[in-house]
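Crash report, auto-generated. Payload:
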Amino acid sequence: MIQYTLKRLLETIPIWVAITLIVFLLMNFIPGDPVMQLMDARSGAIDEQVVEQIREEWGLNDPLYMQYLNFLTNLVQGDLGTSFQSRMEVTSVLLERIPVTIQVTLLGLFFAIVIGVTAGIISAMKRGNWLDTFVSTFSIAGVSLPAFFLGLLLMYIFSVKLNWLPASGYKLGEVKFLILPAITLGLSVSGIIARITRSSMIDVLKMDYMVTSYAKGLSKYRILGIHAMKNALSPILTIIGVQLGLLLSGAVITETIFGLPGIGRLLIDGILQRDIPVVQGCVIFISTVFLVVNLLTDICCRLVDPRIRSEH
Amino acid sequence: MSKLLEICDLKVGFTKNDEFTPVIKGINFSLNKGENLGIVGESGCGKSMTSLAIMGLLKHKGLTVSEGQIKWNGRNLIDQSEKEQKSMLGNEVAMIFQEPMTALNPMLTVGTQIVEQIRAHRKVSKKEAEAHAIQMLKKVGIPSPESRMNVYPHEMSGGMRQRVMIAMAISCEPELLIADEPTTALDVTIQAQILDLLSNLVSETNRSMILITHDLGVVANYCQRVMVMYSGKVMEESPTNELFDKPLHPYTKGLIESVKSIEENSERIASIPGMVPLPGEVIAGCVFCERCPYATDICSQQEPPIETTDDGRRVSCWNYKNLSEVVGAYE
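Recovered output after restart:
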């Protein structure tokens, strides 16, 4: 198992480097000169000499590969550069924003799993019943409804009409600001989790060992919770892993709608201001999390299934 | 002898598009305490469905009991509550399935699977249940049972897995064991071992067993009484010795001849022509009529009743009295 983990970890490193390269190149190919943008914003009059000086200072005149190598070396040391706009360390800006995003994402994931897995199990059990139809409709709606629309809808109902929860803003340690964004995220992802759970459960319920477990006179909890769930878990875990990445990118939209100061907002602001180091930092953070989550999912799937576990 | 199990006019089938298709078409039989009953027949004749009906597990295969009664120690099992059923299954009646490869849960250790059954029916601590499980594994002849407790099913051979199934089935000392083709999926060399083990375990404690098989040889060695089924009906029911000496039903005769011709090394293997009818196929008269070499006019017009002979055998055939006169019908 340890051997497998190490192997997967080593495989992940080149992928991660490739991601940094792609992100770096994309940023360079985006039209628009950040220095010009900055000058525009500051005064309007453009002094060629100052522009040249800034370009030199930021390393923008070096050949592309040199720029990339510099970027990568700094990145490995945890230095993501300095924001063009605020002149602050990108790493420290990110560290400030990350907790907000992680809170929303994890809370959203919690809602997604609770709603999705429960709905999936119920509809697998009540196959063909009205409850099953209801869950199917609901999950298609969840998959196809855009997050921003769902967010606005929830905001309208719970903030404007019922006045139960704040519509936007954030205060450290106050959960009420996180509930609506988390539900928005969770609902949009729970649909797909419900569908996978349902089909995985239906497959498992047909298996011979399920009949055995009934024939043994076990309790319903043991039959469904242990015998069925343990076998149905792998595909559900995989989809949850993939969806976690989707939740992170969904955070871009929800954070903007609900005015949360997280990574998503930082990314949008960075893009609007052509603040390349900030955008790079955000994208690299999100893709790194994505990679790590995928790695963890694979390891979890292995831990769950004794047949794969013993192959090594 | 008191009747442990009584099946009265049992009908089982499935409903598709509001149409009911019978699979078991009204069968009667009973089982005494301490008796081994063999149920024989080709694939698709309703043997396994009968056993699932007794266990109350039909709904998991999409089937329902439409008529009849299953009496367990005088209590009708058809309308018992879920709670009553749960306390009975695995405790008073236990089942051994055909495929040890798929009947054990691949995600749980052998120990866990035996222990959970013991703890579902006995109020014992985990430690006691584990000790009991180890005893059971020892009893079914698994070497070094202590270490086998932590092994997953895929790490064992087919024969070992079936031994685990048996250990599990006897762990709560059930009065009745139902073994549904317990050796079909196993190597020939293992088959006899498993069957010997089963019959020893059963006779040792005066338990009863229903052994479902399509192998007449197995029945001859391990059962006192045999019931022959065909297309969801009972064709014949007799004590084993008498059945082999003088089969009453043409179908039984065909089954025995086909085994005999293999044993006698004859050039041509005798076989019963045709195939088992599909569920839902409507047959006028006797269900076996189309494949029966002894069939007369009445066979295709009217269904034969099940008759009890003077010496207590049961048979469902219009011509059973005249069979011995026709020689070599199956050659």
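Post-recovery validation: Chain A has a mean pLDDT of 83.
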